[in-house]
Amino acid sequence: MAEKKATAKKATETKAAAAKKTTVKKTAAPKAAAKAVLAINAENVGFKAGDVYQALAAAGKALAVKEIAKAAKISEEETLLGLGWLFKEGKLANEGDKVTLA
Hints:
Elements: H1 2-23, H2 42-59, H3 65-72, H4 76-88, E1 92-95, E2 98-101
Antiparallel strand pairs: 1-2
């Protein structure tokens, strides 16, 4: 009879251990979108202006800011920096809500 109690106790412990394993699931914390830090200096802004210029030249037509960012593979903020640079140099023309090379 002692053997039955020991076996029953062992089975109960095994079930309890299995229950703990299933109830204690580690869930990964949701990853926050990593925001890239944009260094604002003449060199970086100049490179972004080059990216914007190349995207507009390749398209050969007026594009919206989102379209330029997608074509140049840069963020919208970087696109706006590049556009500002190019507008200041007089290399861009405005067509409604779109931008084209002057």
